[in-house]
Structure prediction request, 443 residues.
Amino acid sequence: MIEEVNGMPYPNESYKSCMACSMKEGRLFIEDVPIDKIADAYGTPFYVYSSRAISECFNAYKEALKDIPHIISFAVKANSNLSVLSLLRRVGSGADIVSGGELFRALKAGIKPSKIVYSGVGKTASEIEYALKENILMFNVESFGELKEIARIAKEMGKVASIAMRVNPDVDPKTHPYISTGLSENKFGLSIEDAIEAYKMALSDDALKIVGISCHIGSQLTDISPFIEAFKRLFILIKRIEAIKGIRIRYIDLGGGLGVRYKDEEPPTAFEYVSKIKEALRANNSSITSAFPYTLIFEPGRSICANAGLLVTRALYVKENKGKRFLVVDAAMNDLARPSLYKAYHEIVPVAYRDSSIRYKYDIVGPICETGDFFARARLMREVHPDELLAIMSAGAYGFSMSSNYNSRPRCAEIMVNGDDFKLIRKQETYEDLIKGEFLIYD
Ligand SMILES: *Cc1c(COP(=O)(O)O)cnc(C)c1O
Prediction:
């Protein structure tokens, strides 16, 4: 028996987590473009982003920070498409990078090295060299070993490396364990005591220049209090460090992590978030009077682009198995990994609106040969037929950037919408792309 649920509220409104979506005349739109029109032009699956929504999210941070020196360095790992990065560069963004590849992309997109910060626990020698050569703003250093390695390479190159210690404040961000980074048991950053030690070491090294301090405690935080708790510890630490003769902290990098609405979360706005931080900073640092002595750096990723993008997929088959109804679609976990990786929730909306009071419970799954290949389980929806388009909402961050070629599936296209215009910003891969770089050694 397949369960049919009557009288359930239809999540007609579930497209509303997308900042640029609307339902007009029974069709889902992003800005002024009907989703089905893009599907006709480029096939499925594809990611589509709203340039307006991305700019708006960025500008919300900019507006909140306008009265103090700041740099907003978009976390490239959230969405690393060149057009997304160059759109953000145009509105003033820098970049938070975690690899040489991301540095390459940020530079290609025209982002100024003076707005690029480099985080991550495993920077290799060649990556450090590349970043030094390009004169990035600073390295967020995560270990003693890395500090020594940066100093060694800088010396070799006859350069001085600008550094900040990434501090692990040991605060529970109360988010998914896989995206929590600020607990002492996580691999990220230096403990407060180790950070002080590292600053002292750096002070005595001519190849290193101390310019800042940084902290990033996790992702998808929907409550301000763990941030404030972490930043208070950071601000107290700053006072201790500044008491060491010869050290001046110029950049306070507060990382990213602000959450977004996927289902019913109510995260603070960028404005509320920044206001609370400014308050806490003033309360914990008496040297802050009228002239703000620091430049604050923020590294938002998800909160800039998650709700500016969708993954659009087409239903292939409906099948029933032991009382379960499966909707097999043409996108899969290789396109969007978040549901299988974190059991993340994404709203899924049929692109065509149909008035119907009957709800079916669907497991929405992809074609990949893994049980973990699903987008939703036991999701209530109106009846969906093969060939219908579905939009997976809130997919603009950690969507395409986490995609892979698993099951030898070419990665899908990405499209940018601006008003009633839409442009291809990455074409769907071909089969030839799949084997690029491989060698046939047995013929
Ligand atoms: C991932 C990451 C970010 C971005 O996090 P969001 O939750 O997407 O805002 C910022 N800084 C660092 C160091 C990161 O690792």
